[in-house]
Design brief:
Length: 432
């Protein structure tokens, strides 16, 4: 991938948006438009032992670090390649033990600082179109709450990493954390399980649209950008920064809060899908607008309350919260309403955690049809549910239905991941 667009994409000034990327040639759905190695990345702590710390590959029989016993690697090459980053944490994990608790954001920031000090002014393979120092920070738009969180992150950075890092001045650290918060990528697997966080400077150039024409997926520590629609030469490349399930008002609020802009894409301008996403149950006496507004408020609060409850409640309590909210919202909202779907998805996740396979299957089968309606044609949110349903059915000895679900998942995944991705080849083996 080069700045002059020789390989199909070029950097340009997008009207009303600033920097962006556009196509220099035609792309069909499934074509790889851009590949970018991570400038810096971290494996989330919960996935240690199942994924390599260096390349993030999912493997069995990984070898652990002989000193800290916490990091695991495919082989000696991966371990040696990661040592310049792992040494930032290795001795500290030994010294602090269970008290070693920097956030993923802090861990990623530490690695960015170390990488900058190592490479100095040299442009890395992750920065062919944009340097990490050029990432947007939006310092002028930070509220007090976010500033306080950054101060806490900086304090943690000093506490856990002072032995191995020379820190820049305080203002530079504030700038760095603002950049990470705006431009950090969450790495997820084929079932949308969280694997880690990373910074991909060139990919960060892609602007947002709620009608995206590309999708970002991951092959280890490499971000791959693939077309999900036909793209013509000169057309801007757009991805989605957020979950597209929700209605326009919710999406706009999320984008303003996290990325400091208002989306004016076709989907946001026309609100074409909002009626279907907010479908009201057909009743003999239609509910009044005031009742609908109250239930909408309740639905939004229920989502936030559940998010907080995940840190304090037992799985059984969480499932009860889902069921009670679904009962209440079901008095007004149709089963295809996105607030209903959100809580069903949470209930499915709790059932999976509790190994209630039949319960998870029941919720998943209610979700997947409406998901196809609300999400774009090639959506990881849809393929991940099909994948879970397929594996659930196979585990419950419902082989015919399980294979059908897996084939539907694979049809989407071959486009968004590529036909040779390990996630796709694994499904082929399951179908056989």
């Amino acid at each position: 991938m080069v700045p002059d667009g020789k390989e199909g994409i070029e950097k340009f000034q997008s009207p009303g948006k600033g920097r962006g990327l556009r196509a220099c040639r035609r792309f069909a759905a499934g074509d790889l438009a851009l590949s970018c190695p991570a400038y810096a990345c971290v494996l989330t702590v919960g996935e240690r032992g199942g994924h390599c710390e260096g390349c993030l590959s999912r493997r069995e029989g990984l070898s652990k670090c002989g000193k800290c016993k916490k990091a695991f690697y495919c082989n000696v090459d991966c371990q040696r390649g990661d040592w310049s980053m792992h040494k930032l944490e290795c001795s500290a994990m030994c010294a602090y033990g269970e008290k070693w608790s920097p956030s993923e954001t802090v861990r990623l920031a530490a690695r960015i600082i170390a990488k900058k000090q190592k490479t100095q002014l040299e442009r890395t393979v992750s920065e062919k179109m944009m340097l990490v120092s050029e990432l947007e920070a939006h310092l002028d738009k930070l509220g007090n709450e976010k500033k306080e969180m950054m101060e806490a992150d900086i304090a943690a950075l000093h506490h856990f990493y002072s032995k191995h890092l020379d820190f820049p001045d305080h203002d530079s650290l504030i700038h760095l954390f603002a950049q990470v918060n705006c431009n950090g990528f969450t790495i997820e697997d084929e079932q949308l399980s969280h694997l880690g966080s990373a910074v991909f400077p060139d990919v960060a150039l892609i602007n947002h649209s709620c009608c995206p024409n590309v999708i970002v997926t991951y092959r280890g520590i490499v971000a791959e950008v693939r077309a999900v629609k036909d793209i013509s030469p000169g057309e801007e490349i757009f991805t989605s920064y957020i979950d597209l399930l929700y209605p326009t008002e919710d999406r706009i609020e999320r984008l303003r809060d996290s990325y400091y802009f208002t989306c004016n894409c076709t989907e946001c301008s026309t609100k074409a899908k909002d009626k279907a996403k907010m479908k009201i149950r057909k009743l003999s006496t239609p509910p009044k607008q005031e009742v609908i507004k109250d239930m909408l408020r309740y639905g939004r609060n229920a989502i936030e309350d559940f998010r907080k409850a995940k840190h304090t409640k037992t799985p059984s309590e969480l499932l009860l919260i889902c069921e009670l909210s679904l009962d209440k919202m079901g008095l007004v909202f149709d089963d295809t309403n996105v607030y209903i779907l959100h809580m069903m998805y949470q209930a499915m996740g709790v059932c999976l955690f509790m190994e209630d396979w039949e319960g998870a299957l029941s919720y998943g089968e209610k979700i997947v049809g409406p998901y196809r309606l609300h999400y774009p044609a090639y959506s990881l949110n849809v393929s991940s549910v099909y994948l879970k349903l397929g594996r659930l059915c196979l585990g419950l000895e419902k082989e015919v239905q399980g294979v059908k679900y897996l084939k539907k998942a694979m049809a989407i995944m071959e486009v968004v991941f590529g036909k040779d991705h390990p996630y796709v080849t694994d499904i082929r083996k399951e179908i056989k």
